[in-house]
TrEMBL record:
Consists of three domains, a large central CORE domain and two small peripheral domains, NMPbind and LID, which undergo movements during catalysis. The LID domain closes over the site of phosphoryl transfer upon ATP binding. Assembling and dissambling the active center during each catalytic cycle provides an effective means to prevent ATP hydrolysis. Some bacteria have evolved a zinc-coordinating structure that stabilizes the LID domain. Its EC number is 2.7.4.3. This is Adenylate kinase. It comes from the Bacteria. Pathway: Purine metabolism; AMP biosynthesis via salvage pathway; AMP from ADP: step 1/1. CDD domains: ADK (cd01428). The keyword Cytoplasm applies. It comes from Candidatus Acididesulfobacter diazotrophicus.
Amino acid sequence: MKDNLVCILIGPPGAGKGTQAKNIANRYKCKLVSTGDILRENVENNTELGVQAKNYIDNGNLVPAELVAAMIKNTMELYGININYLFDGFPRDIEQNVLFEKILNEFDLSVKAMIYINIEDDVVFDRLTNRRICPKCNRVYHLKFYPPKFDNLCDDCKVELITRDDDKKDVIKKRLEVFQKLTHPLVEYYKKQNKVIEINGNKNSEDVFKNIISGINCFR
Ligand code: AP5
């Protein structure tokens, strides 16, 4: 079995996965694979996958496991096996994990650790209803904590910021339910293997990052 760093980054919606993912990937020279980002890109470009995924995303449900697993396999075939990987938001339930372990096995890889960022439900609503995104560069802002310098414009692109379609209150509620019902059991699965780095996501993002780094270093 190869000794590459293969990590899963998981947590409730709005936990700060996307915010942390880029920094973690830079720090450990990982290829970052975010299923949410890839799916949204497909929806935007109206690909066959995007058309199939849109309804699930808009309603806060998980996109079917076989579609997401095929997407992951294609990505890994493209980037190869001699690199580190950080999977943001995948696998997301036991069914996806079975398919993921099969794929990893084919590549002679295995999961080193799951980084689980945990936050409370009321923080989730505050984070997501105040989140704004640059449609051009995908930079993520928060109106209170990480606001743009100029009213509703991306600091870098000067393009008007947008709200994600699934950041409506009823969809956030559904995403939280899906997390508890389907994703939480997967956290328990990896806990039994002593592979979970549990992080308090309620702190500021610099502290969250420091705690993630300390956690990962224990696994290296
Ligand atoms: P996905 O895109 O993965 O969304 P999510 O898991 O719901 O998480 P978010 O992207 O909403 O939040 P985040 O944790 O990245 O938080 P962020 O850093 O932006 O998935 C979307 C949908 O796609 C799913 O519902 C599903 O339909 C589908 N999908 C995706 N993956 C799938 C899979 N594997 N299988 C099936 N379907 C799948 O932070 C949030 C806000 O808080 C931002 O404004 C940020 O600036 C701010 N913030 C971050 N950290 C802090 C901090 N420490 N303090 C204060 N503010 C902070």
